[in-house]
Amino acid sequence: MTEFQQLDPMVLIGLAGLVGLLIGSFLNVVIHRLPRMMQAAWEAEAAELRGESVAESGPYNLLRPRSSCPHCGTPIAAHHNVPVVSWVMLRGRCAHCATPIPVRYPLVEVMGGLLSMAAVAQFGPTLAGVGALGLGLVLLALTFIDLDTQLLPDDLTLPLLWAGLLLNLWGTFVPLHEAVIGAMGGYLALWLVYWLFRLATGKEGMGYGDFKLLAALGAWLGWQALPAIILLSALVGAAVGIGLIVFRRHNRDTPIPFGPYLAGAGLLALYFGEPIQALIPRL
After folding, report:
1. Percent of the chain residues past pLDDT 90, beyond the cut
2. Which of these, 67, 113, 129, 278, could form a disulfide with 21 (CB 3.0-4.6 Å)?
């Protein structure tokens, strides 16, 4: 860590961007495969409870099998898997069957690079910088998984919560007692909203994954950041929801994932927490 601290800040930020691009490429795998792994596990458990035998198949996890084109099934060569560059060189198409590759793949990679650069620029080559980098990248993965499936997997939210508490053992972002209260308060705040909404309407307004995500953000940023996170996510979520209903004829009964707004608000609180908290009493 000392050697990194002696490097020029711009070099450090550039290196962080490259690392973020590489991790962003892996996040695309996580975003695509983790929900399918969860679905397979649920189906296997249900079959076991029914007393049915589960057909064995080849390994399917975050590492195996190799990434392949979802259209033709051709494995992606290593030189076609360079973040952003490969997509540009291939003009956004599969090298084998020329099926269009969604622009979201390089977008996730670029966002991973930008989040990594922001972490190092704000906190430097420190424990807080490494933590902010990890937090941003996990929130990025959770955002796209929630947009795709309306799920916030425990495999990501719970380790994120424990990582926040672990880092704050040394007061990396906030004192430990504020982190513990933040984790408890984050979960209970949305849990109460959930039950009040359910009692009033008979419907579920959000999922338990949202409770766990806000608890994780409370563990990282402390209880004092919770009002800003809840307010920002609610305002942006309401604005987007109204916009979808008015301009895109979005059905009022169609659920809108709340996780991306919590993740975005959490990142804003991480980087601009003090001015945002100072502004809230004036709103």
Report:
1. 55
2. 113
How many helices (H) and strands (E) in the chain?
Answer: 10, 0
The DSSP secondary-structure symbol of 81 reads -
212 contacts 157 by C-beta, under 8 angstroms: yes
Residue 5 in tokens: 């601290």
Q: Are 72 and 93 in contact (CB under 8 A)?
A: no
- Whole-structure pTM value: 0.91
Query: CB neighbours of 242 closer than 8 A, spacing ≥ 6?
Result: none
Is the C-alpha dihedral spanning 139, 143, 144, 146 positive or negative? positive
- Cβ proximity of 30 and 105 under 8 Å: no
236 Cβ contact list (under 8 Å, min separation 6):
261, 264, 265
Q: Which of 10-19, 48-57, 167-176 has the lowest mean pLDDT?
A: 48-57
Confidence of residue 68 (pLDDT cuts 50, 70, 90): confident
Whole-angstrom distance, CA of residue 269 vs CA of residue 122: 13
